[in-house]
Amino acid sequence: DILLSIIPALVCITLHELAHGFVAYKLGDNTAKLAGRMTLNPLKHIDAMGLLMMVVFKFGWAKPVPVDMRKFSNPKKGMAITALAGPVANLLIGVAVLFLYGLLAIPLSGLGGVGDYIARMLLITAYLSIALAIFNLIPIPPLDGSKVLYALLPDPAYWKLMRYERYGMLFLVALLFLMNNLDINPLGNAASYVFDKLFYVALWGFDLVSRFAR
User: Fold this and answer.
1) Which of 6, 14, 53, 194 gives the lowest tally of CB atoms within 10 Å of its CB?
2) Are 45 and 89 spatial neighbours (Cβ–Cβ below 8 Å)?
3) Nearest-CA neighbor of 104 among 121, 90, 89, 92?
């Protein structure tokens, strides 16, 4: 699963960061565009530690897209919307890939080992995309959930908490290792729960193909 997770992880983090940059651009901030981050090239978005964490633990991060919230007409609101764009994009990708898996399930079953490999890759992509969305909604800086939470705070508290953003990642890395050593995985349980609930989308695709195959 670790080797099979590399390409799906690159797809998920690339589209996640691209969504941030695109929404920020639409809201008036062209910083990501000027930095060359509005691209599908995964090399522009990779954070080595974040990618390793995602492949091994199924939860990780990418190199954050630069955002200048001063360019938004409403800085806090613009930052919150931009932050939400990543997780929302990942959830939509998860749904789309599950539907694609359902559409291709019957054709892939006739391809033997190659078909099994492609099917597995699709399921891993869907799961990692959902897991990335859930992980980023945690309200711990610098994850997206913290930026949404901070938007609800008074300005003085907002700017004070933003100063500690750099330390949040150290806490998250330690937390992931601790949960792994203690064999507890609430994030994995949450991702699996959402994945299972959304799997009916794959059944829609499977049913659609089955009707045409009759």
Assistant:
1) 6
2) no
3) 121
What are the extents of the domains in the chain?
2-213
Per the CB < 8 A criterion, the answer to whether 205 and 101 are in contact is yes
CB 104 within 8 A of CB 213: no
Q: Which residue has the tokens 């006739």?
A: 110
17 is an active site residue: yes
pLDDT < 70 stretches in the chain: 1, 213-214
| Alpha-carbon span 146 to 83, nearest angstrom | 9
**Encoded tokens for 127:** 């799961």
Tell whether omega for the bond before 42 is within 30 degrees of 0, i.e. cis. Answer: no
| Nearest by Cα to 138 from 111, 171, 93, 163 | 171
Sign for the CA dihedral angle at 9, 12, 17, 18 comes to positive
Q: Give the residue from 81, 80, 44 showing the smallest Cα distance to 64.
A: 44
Secondary structure (3-state) at 127 = helix
Nearest to 62 by CA among 147, 129, 3, 152: 129
Angstrom CA distances, 9 to 49, 109, 129, stand at: 13, 24, 8
Q: Which pLDDT score is estimated for 50?
A: 82
Whole-number pLDDT of residue 213:
61
Catalytic: which of 8, 10, 15, 17? Answer: 17
